[in-house]
Amino acid sequence: METLRHIVLFVHLIGFAVLFGAWAVQAFGGKREFTRLMSIGMTLAAVAGLALAAPWGLPEGAELNYAKIGTKLVVLLAIGALLGIGTSKQRKSGAVPAAMFWLVGILTALNAGIAAIWR
């Protein structure tokens, strides 16, 4: 069971990497727009993250940090909302508001920071 949990963690990390990598490509070399790949990465990270939040496959005596899980979920929902609203605006006007675009990158990095630093 622990092996399956590690595989789900690996998929979660891949989802983060896809989201942040696609954002970074657009931020530093693209047209600063939201791409389908960002939504795919966010969805992959979300599904795997929710699976990791379930209390299965934990070592004996280990407990989940529900405050951390809740905080990461709120940040994820904000990222999803920004991607959804920004993609809609992008279709209508052809551009994403700059603040919305940069906020997605900041929140994605924040979510990774919460995962790595908060114990």
Question: Could you characterize what this model shows?
Answer:
The chain crosses the membrane at residues 6-25, 37-57, 69-87, 99-118. It comes from Microbacterium hydrocarbonoxydans. Keywords: Membrane, Transmembrane, Transmembrane helix. This is Fe-S protein. With 119 residues, the protein is mostly helical. The chain has one domain (2-117). The protein is built from four helices and no strands. The chain is elongated. It starts with a helix and ends with a helix.
What portion of residues is helical? over 70%
Mean pLDDT over the full residue set: 94
Strand content: under 5%
Give the biggest sheet.
Answer: none
Task: Pick out the low-confidence regions.
Answer: none
SSE succession: HHHH
Number of distinct beta strands: 0
Using only C-alpha atoms, the radius of gyration works out to 15 Å
Give the topology, please.
Blueprint: H1 2-29, H2 36-52, H3 66-93, H4 98-117
Helix pairs in contact: 1-2, 1-4, 2-3, 3-4
Keywords:
single chain, 119 residues, mainly alpha
Summarize the structure.
It is built from four helices and no strands. Helix 1 runs antiparallel to helix 2 and helix 1 runs antiparallel to helix 4.
